[in-house]
Amino acid sequence: MDKIYKQLVKGLRDFGAGAGIKRAVLGLSGGADSAVVAVLAAEAFGAGNVFGLAMPSRYTSALSNDTAAMLAGNLGINFTVQPIGPAFDLLRAQLKKDFAAGPAPLTEQNLQSRLRGVIIMAFANQLNAAALATGNRSEIYTGYCTLYGDTVGAVAPLANLYKTEVFALARHINRDMEIIPAATIARAPTAELAPNQKDSDDLLPYDQLDIIIEEYAFKKSPMAQICSKAKVSESEVRRIIKKIDGSAFKRAQLAPAIEVKK
Is there a domain that residue 212 lies in? Predict the structure, then answer.
């Protein structure tokens, strides 16, 4: 983890130097991914040059708001709150003119993510900063991300790491003192785009999901081996494979990753 951490910091520094950009902006959701990226950015660009944006909606928990603010305080980065509720309500009302029953649940979820992407890019433009996409390999390969939403950015520091590795990196960052709030690492991953939403409702627990992605997409392992290693049924493996194959178009449009492994 120490080697990976140093590679990611160097990758961000090299990116900034090559692009002539000295600042970075990212969304702070209260989750592990954005927390780790914020830590990396603070070291790569300097805390005073990093801008963290909390963009709560009606589904954002108090825990998410509190841990995002706590993280920003621990790092000493710039922090501001930009609620997306008013813009979301306005767009939903506008779309209802043509959508008889109103926007579908998935449409509403993606609207929230894309509104956050718009705000992040506005700050990036205003500050001449690099927008940092915070998605990980687990989300990217299953399509559990929104094009032009949480995928917006100039570079994606964690796109080469599985979610299980992101948590391991978060624990490594906290090895000597609590920088990332403990509640961020302990909580069940959630996109908070719908009531009581958890990642595992749509995917699988990440320790199983990451094995399936690695065995299918990278090692090209036979079905029996994938099922055995992940300890899940063939039907569940095929459900995840369908997500992997069906989201290839998303992966083709993502910000460049900082590669720390194949």
Answer: no
Measured CA to CA, the distance from residue 12 to residue 32 in angstroms comes to: 18
Measured between alpha carbons, how far is 22 from 102 in angstroms, rounded to an integer? 43
What is the Cα–Cα distance from 78 to 131, expressed in whole angstroms?
14
Contact in structure between 216 and 137 (CB atoms under 8 Å) = no
Check residue 262 and give its pLDDT.
Answer: 63
Q: What's the number of domains the chain is made of?
A: 1
Reported as a single tens digit per residue, the pLDDT across 79-120 is 999 999 999 999 999 998 899 888 899 999 999 999 999 999
Tell me the CATH number at 12.
3.40.50.620
46 conformational bin, left if phi > 0, alpha if psi -120 to 50, beta if neither: left
Asked whether residue 208 is domain-assigned, the answer is no
Domain range spanning residue 129?
Answer: 2-196+246-251
Tokens of 238: 């095929």
Which residues partner with 130 through β-bridges? 24
Q: Which residues contact 97 (CB under 8 A, 6 or more apart)?
A: none
Q: Is the pLDDT of residue 261 over 80?
A: no
Q: Is residue 35 part of a domain?
A: yes
Q: Is 221 domain-assigned?
A: no
pLDDT at position 194, please?
86
Q: How many other C-beta atoms can be found within 10 angstroms of the C-beta atom of residue 11?
A: 20
- Residue 152 near residue 117, CB atoms below 8 Å: yes
How much of the chain, in percent, has pLDDT values that exceed 90? Answer: 91
Return the SS3 of 218.
Answer: helix
Measure the CA–CA gap between 178 and 148, rounded to whole angstroms: 33
Reply yes or no on whether the pLDDT at 179 is more than 70: yes
